[in-house]
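Continuing the series of single-chain predictions for the mutant panel. This is the parent chain; the variants come on the following pages.
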Amino acid sequence: MTNAVKLREPGLARLRALTRLLDDLLPIPFTRFRIGLDPLIGLVPVGGDAIGAAISTYALLVAARLGAPVAVLLRMCGNIALDAVVGTVPFLGDLFDFGWKANRRNLALLQRYELTPGVVTRGSRLLLAAILLLLLLILAGAFVLAWFILRYLSHHLW
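Parent structure:
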């Protein structure tokens, strides 16, 4: 085992332990599903999802120490942000928290990056490009809709 791998292993081991704690701590009886502390923290009114997201950012620190590229870090941020934002929606967000498991996704992404850095980086860049394209299309659609609304109002009010 090389020194680089030895240096990386403690961070990954801590990240695995944190992921288990947050996403997979307890089995749900009579099912294959497991639940961690993250969805339970998300049930705390007002700031539960923000607290969960703050704890989840540890994965970003580990990934940065391992030298993960910006595209992978942004993808990990996206997983955390989606978990936190959707988690704020009453009831539906809580159900989403039980299934999304952003920490497990980020750990898997980081482990895949360790095995095949080029593939994961390219995939992350493609995903980020698709998200940016989708956001641009939504923004363009909003502008077109606003233009039609303003045009309609100007014809009927003036």
